[in-house]
């Protein structure tokens, strides 16, 4: 079954920004993968002991045909779920959602973009629920990430700024305006700004940390962390050597780099049909 290891990844700056990365604590991120692992389909003879697997695949196909939907796997035998997980494979996007009660929800995109495997884990690290969802981004992330987030920033007192804080207040004021006016899609490129270590600490302390962390893997990694301010995300791009090359703040419902497009869902629909035909 899917086993999402966790890694603490702080939000940090680049360029004229600080080299020390451990001054603040952030929610953990999903563990990155070193290499892509292709889907390994079982032999037809191996399917004889799993009479319900084709029904499960047909249910996923139906969801893809519609373009959205949810499949509860709570009552599915563990062996069937393991086989389904093997057939669907593992994709590039992993998500961790903090439930706030000591538990969390792990979400792993399958090798079919837009098909998401979800596991609810309690405070005792026991999986209490599993499901599949077909969507551009899981509804939980879209609807619940900022459910309790602040809608305004508490700007630092300009009369009592810590020494070394220079450009953070102006940047935060710009961000406040974008949040208040709900200019979704606005991006602030921190990589190009002259920010001191004190500036970055001021920004991170003001924004806080939200409920969702996302890791999108491609040629490198894109690490996305929700802040404590509604619709504000840290989005950080790393190259293949894990060097931070782009550091941004985005005002958006969910950054597009984490989402499956309608074209992705259409491709997944065709690919699943091919997989089902290969298993017949």
Q: Tell me the number of strands.
A: 12
Strand order of the largest sheet: 3-7-6-5-4-9-10-11-12-8
- Measured on Cα atoms, how large is the radius of gyration? 21 Å
CATH architecture of the largest domain: 2-Layer Sandwich
* Largest sheet features: 10 strands, antiparallel
CATH superfamily of the largest domain: HupH hydrogenase expression protein, C-terminal domain
Total number of helices: 6
Report the top-level CATH class of the largest domain. Answer: Alpha Beta
Rounded mean pLDDT is 85
How would you describe the shape?
elongated
Distance between the termini: 23 Å
- Secondary structure: helix percent: 25-40%
Write down the secondary-structure element order: EEHEHEEEEHHEHEEEEH
Structural class: alpha+beta
CATH topology of the largest domain: Ribosomal Protein S8, Chain: A, domain 1
Q: Any low-confidence stretches, pLDDT <50, length ≥5? A: 1-26, 31-36
Any descriptors?
280 residues, alpha+beta, 6 helices, 24% strand, disordered N terminus
Note down, in words, how this protein is organized.
Helix 1 packs antiparallel against helix 6 (262-279) and helix 4 packs parallel to helix 5. The chain folds into 2 domains: 6-144 and 260-279, HupH hydrogenase expression protein, C-terminal domain (Ribosomal Protein S8, Chain: A, domain 1), CATH 3.30.1370.140; 158-258, HupH hydrogenase expression protein, C-terminal domain (Ribosomal Protein S8, Chain: A, domain 1, 2-Layer Sandwich). The strands form 2 sheets. A 10-stranded antiparallel beta sheet has the order 3-7-6-5-4-9-10-11-12-8. Strands 1-2 form a two-stranded antiparallel sheet. Strand 10 (221-226) and strand 11 (232-238) form a beta hairpin. The chain contains 6 helices and 12 strands. The radius of gyration is 21 Å and the shape is elongated. It is of the alpha+beta class and 280 residues long.
